[in-house]
Amino acid sequence: MSVQEYLDKHLLSRRIEDAVNAAVRSKISDPVLFISNHMRKAVPSVITKVKARQILDSRGMPTVEVDLHTNKGMFRASSPSGVSSGMYEAIDLRDGEKGTYLGNGVNRAVNNINEKISVALVGMDPTLQSQIDQVMIDLDKAENKSELGANAILAVSIAACKAGAAEKEVPLHKHIADLSGQTSLLLPVPVFTLISGGKHAGNNLAIQEIMILPVGSKTFEEALQMGSETYHHLKAVITETYGAHGCNVGEDGGFTPNISSLRDGLDLVQKAIGKTGYNEKIKIAVGVSATEFCIGTKYDLDFKTPNKSGQNFKSGQDMIDMYKELCADYPIVSIEDPFDKEDWEHVKYFSGLGLCQVVGDDLLMSNPKRIERAIQENACNALLLKVNQIGTVTEAIEVVKMAKDAQWGVVISQRSGETEDSFISDLSVGLATSQIKAGAPCRGERLAKYNQLLRIEEELGDQAVYISEKWRN
Predict the structure, then answer these.
(1) What is the pTM of this model?
(2) By C-alpha distance, which of 296, 304, 413, 417 is closest to 362?
(3) What is each CA distance from 210 to 1, 191, 226, 239, 348, in whole angstroms?
(4) For 461, how many CA atoms within 13 A lie in the half-sphere containing its CB?
(5) What percent of the chain is modeled with pLDDT above 90?
(6) Which residues bind Mg(2+) (predicted)?
(7) Which residues are catalytic?
(8) What integer pLDDT is reported at residue 470 of this predicted model?
(9) Which residue positions in the chain have pLDDT lower than 50?
(10) CB 257 within 8 A of CB 291
(11) Measured between alpha carbons, how far is 163 from 184 in angstroms, rounded to an integer?
(12) Residues within the annotated binding site?
């Protein structure tokens, strides 16, 4: 669109005249500022520029950051990434040049934004999120977004969402609620990582993480306090038992004591909870990530211990028996990925026992087709949503609706490679999900999410509703 076409389309000559007349009538002391503000409200905002760059995430690996410009200003967003990607999720585009960032550079994705996506989006209304996302999906053409890169598409999608909120002059979480048709805003229960294992840590613990949910708190602020206090009590417990070196942290900020037994980790967390005095107000969750140690149809809980690996294989039934015992002995209310991503038989059986929330992560990969199958087969009862696995805000909203229609829980999740972007906090509130998993109450990229939820709760004031003990509803 040419400058003259833009002027004609929006009747700018008439609007400028109206603004000048309004300034005269108001007898304002600063007519230039008045006219400027008047015009900003009178003229619909459009995307004027999209500029991307390569930055580093919390693991020191490259990722994509985008500055999206409209008449209202500049809106920045970045894309997170995980340790590994599965065949059913959207694909980050990497450069593959081994001499630069070990092949993990994202200059190709950046160039796709600057040279292709920006051209397609300039002139679009930032409030039309679904149209913006569809333009990028159509431009990519690949089902897994591998042509332009999910990292490129997601960063632009999030930036556009922020711009849309600014155009409507509403908070980001309110704009997201409007996009999804959600009528209520809810503060989620935080799922704090306390102990890290699996691929996220250098210890011998096979399972990926032990977490806590402060379900007995009355506000999000109180939940964050509970999480922080428990975390620091755990640090003291680990130091006493394993020495200060046991308090090194993994990629999500969880402590990494050199334990190999899940029970040892649960005992440490239980002891820390006891020291806080909160006891019944705090429940435990376990992120197993069983795909990482599944070999054929067997599970090797000693896969990180070279001299023991392969000596203690467990069958799917053995794993079920183990989970039953753990749920009986500890206040475990949620287990994530208890079996391999293709072990539908055992996950269906275990979910049917009704012992706890069963969360699908690798099982689902935020993929609509996998989610639909899991719903039909009752394979789990909660979705772990990682926005970079699906690639756009619109598609994230759609899968959350699928999960809610099936009466599932929804956990909005971070990635191991995070940035300072706190978008998932607003996403969780706007979509009224019951839980948010943003790592430990430690490390800036994790706390950015939790601190944003504090701000949202404060901003909502008397209208703030914390999900608390109804977190599974």
Answers:
(1) 0.91
(2) 413
(3) 54, 10, 16, 18, 23
(4) 2
(5) 79
(6) 302, 336, 361
(7) 252, 386
(8) 83
(9) none
(10) no
(11) 22
(12) 200, 209, 302, 336, 361, 413-416, 437
> What is the structure's pLDDT at 42?
63
Q: What is the pLDDT of residue 310?
A: 65
Q: Give backbone dihedrals phi and psi of 224, rounded to 5 degrees, phi first.
A: -65, -40
Binding-site residues for Mg(2+), in ranges, read: 302, 336, 361
Which residue ranges are tagged as binding site for substrate?
200, 209, 336, 361, 413-416, 437
pLDDT tens digit sequence for 308-339: 766 778 999 999 999 999 999 999 999 999 99
Q: Are 434 and 409 in contact (CB under 8 A)?
A: yes
**Structure tokens given for 28:** 């304002």
* pLDDT of res. 307: 75
Q: Which amino acid is at 289?
A: S
The tokens of 397 are what? Answer: 């909203």
Alpha helices in 181-291 (DSSP H): 220-242, 262-276
